[in-house]
Write the structure tokens for this entry.
Amino acid sequence: MNRVSDVARTFGLNPQTLYYYERIGLIPAPERNDSGYRVFNDQDLARLSLIERAKTLGLTLDEIKEILQLQAGNTLTCCDIHERLRKKLEQIEIKITQLQELKAELLPLIHRCEEQLSQQKIHTDCGVLAEEISVGKS
């Protein structure tokens, strides 16, 4: 049996995160020892491991909770997981596109700043952002 501090350390979490997971129903209320401390068994640790792995895949806590509920009801199928992972992949692809567009906007600004810096205009007022704002309004 592992206490909150041990489990938090094992998973690299703040102990408050474990309390939060319990509050929102991601993990069941752990057993308590004679002193009243929460203690986690192997099943709890396996569930936390699944939660942390799902988080590294970009799943939200709500998405993880839904998967855990299906799993608890023994109705989690490969099709369910496939559907959710495909949906997450689509969201990631949209985000990548948005980030690439942002990068395309930032690179010219960075190049203008670098030009000014190369001309020893280090201490001059940088109007690069102001120029972009006024250009965008035209």
